[in-house]
Description:
eight-stranded parallel beta sheet; alpha/beta
Amino acid sequence: MIEPLEPQARLDQIVKLIAKHMETEVCSLYVLRSDGVLELYATEGLNPGSVHLAQLKLGEGLVGTIAATARPLNLSDAQNHPAFTYLPETGEEIYATFLGVPVLRAGRTLGVLVVQNKAAGRVYPEEESEAFETVAMVIAEMIAAGGLEGLTRPGATLDLTRPVSFEGEPLCDGIGIGRVVLHEPRVVVSSLFNEDVETEVSRLTEALAILRESIADMLDRRDVADEGEHRAVLETYRKFAQDRGWVRRLEEAVRNGLTAEAAVEKVQSDMRARMMHLTDPYIRERLHDFDDLANRLLRQLIGQGGVSADIADAVVVARNMGAAELLDYHRGQIRGLVLEEGAATSHVVIVARALGIPVAGQVKGVVSRSEKGDSIIVDGESGDVHLRPPPEVHDLFSDKLRFRAERQQRYRSLRDQPARTVDGTMIGLQMNAGLLVDLPQLAESGAEGIGLFRTELQFMVASTMPRAGDQERLYRAVLDAAGDKPVTFRTLDVGGDKLLPYLSHGPEENPALGYRAMRLALDRPGLLRTQLRALLKASSGRESRIMFPMVTDLFEIRAARALIDRELDHLTRFGYEPPKKLSIGAMLEVPSLLYQLDPLMAGLDFVSIGSNDLFQFFFAVDRGNANVSGRYDDLSVPFLRALRSVVAASERNGVHLSLCGEMAGRPLSAMALIGLGFRNISMAPPSIGPVKAMLTTLDAAALSGELHALLDDGEETGSARAFLKDFAERHAIPY
C-alpha cells in the first residue's frame, strides 16, 4: 500500500497478492460507479482483457447481490446459486467455489471483492472470510481517499461522487448553497496496518476501559446534559461498550493486521451495513447509538476532539444537535442546516430560524452519504436536499436564491409601513430573540419590539452559571438596543429538553411534563431571585416587562410576584432606581389554564400564549417526535376554538394578549390568528416580512365573520387549513 505505484498497478498487485496468500485461482475487484453499475477494475485469474469492460448492475449476479445487500456470500457451488450470472468475457464459468465480500465505508457499498476456485466443495473458513473483509475495508479507504482517480472511463464516475437527492421535512424557510460540514465528522483513519499486534490490542483495551469509565461517570453523576444525550441512550452505550461480541470482533480485526482505530472503523462499517437491512425500527434506531459509541472510541484512540466549521459557506449536516451546539458555529459561515432527525419546534430549529438559517429535517441517510467538503443544497421550502448536485441543479437553485433575495428586498420595502389590514385594523408585529446576535434584526425586520426574549439561551450556551453581573449586562444591552421599543423578558425556562450541564437533574420518564420552568425556579428561589434582580437593575428608570413561563397554577403567579416585591424592596433599600413601569405577565401553555382564564388574568398585566407547548399538550403530541409531530394540525378547529376563548377572556378583563409560538410566523396561521381577534403576535425576524405582506392585503373583518361561522358549527372538528387557503386565494392574499 505504501509503494509508489500507479493506481492500476496497485490494484493489480493487490489482487495478485490476495490470490497467492489465500491460495485461490481467481481474485477480482469490482467498483461501484455512480450509474449503479459494478465495473471490473482488477483481476488475477480471469481474462485480463475484461478489466474495465465486464459490468454488472446492482442486484445482478452474485457480485451485484453482494453489493445490493452489503452482505458476503460464501458458496461451495456458485453456478447453482439462483443469483449466478455468466459473463462470457471473463471466462469464469469453470470456477465453482466463491467468496465475495462488500467493500464498505461508513456502511456504504463502494464495490465487491471476490475470490474463486475451480474445485467444488471448498468452503472458506470464517477466519479467512474475516481476513478478506479486512482487506476490503483497506480498499474502501483507498477508494475514499481518491486512490482510483484516473482509472474511470470518460463520462463515468465512482459512486462516491454520485449526485444524491433526499426528501425531508421543511423546518425553516430559505435556500442554502454551500459545502458539507459534518457536525460529528467521521474520524479519518490514516494508520491502517499494525506493526505489533499486542501493542494494538493493549491500545484498544485501554481505550475501551476509558470509554466505559466515562459512560459510567456520566451515569453515576447524572451528568447527562453534558453530552446532550438522554439517560436511556447512555444506558444503551454502556451495554454496547460491555458487549463481548463487539469487543471480540474488534480484537479479531486487530489480530488480522489492523491498527486499533482501523479495527473500530471496520467493525463499525460492517455493523452499519448489516443493521441497515433490518426492518425492526427499534433495532435500526440502535444503529445511531452504535455509530456514536464507535466514533467516541475512535476519537479516544487518536486523541481527536471536536471540530468547527472551517468552510466559509458551510452547510452543517448532523443526525441531531442542541441549540447551544449550533451557536458554537460562526453565524457568518453557515448557509444551511440538514438534520436526519429534528422537528419544526425543536429548539435547534427555533434558534436556526432566529438566525435566518434554512433547515431541512428528517433527511434519512444523509450523514453516511456525505463527506466533508461535498457541494450541497438545502431547500428549506420543500425539505429537499441535493448532495453533490449536477451543474444544472446548482444553476437552478442559484437562480431561485436570487429570486428569493429579490423577494426579501420587497419585504424590506414594507419595513417602515404600518402593519395595517385593508379594513384599518392595526396589528402589532414583534420578534422573538434570545441572544445579542439577534438584536440587529430588530431594525432590519421592522419589528415593533421584542415580544419574547428567551433568557435561557444565555444559560444554555455557557459552561458555568452566568453571574448576576453577566445577566444584568445582557439585559441592559438588549434594552439599549431596543431603544423605545418594548422588550418582554421571559424568565429562565429550563428543564424538560433544555438541560443545563452545571445543574443537576434527576432522570425523568416524561421530561416535558416534569421538573421544569416555574416548578424548578420556585423550588430554587435563589436562582430566580438572582435573575429578577438583574432584570430590575437593568431596567432602572425604564419600562420592565417580565413574563413567567409554563405557569400551571395560580399560586405560582402569586409566589413569583412575592419574589419580585422582595427584590424591589431590596433595590430600593440600597438606593437603586426602580423601573419606571413594571408589567408582569405569564405564558399560557398548559390546557388547565383554559378553565381559569378570568382569575388568571385578574392577577396579570398581560398574557402571552406559547402555542408550541399549548398545542403539544392539547393533543398529547411530543413536538420532537417525528412519528407523531406531523399527525395533528395546529389549525385544527378544536385548537382554534381554544385560542378564541382566550381572546374573549382578554377582552373581558382588559388584559393585553399576544401569541409568540411558531403559528405567528407562518402567513396562513397568522391570518387565522388575526381572524380570531389577536392583535399582537411575535415571531422569528425573517417571518415578519411575509406576515406583513399577507396582512396588508387582508380584510380582517371579512375573515373574522367567516372563520367564526366555521368555529360555531358544532359538527366541524377537522382542520380549518383548507378553508383558510380558499379564503386567501379568493381574496388574492399571499400565504
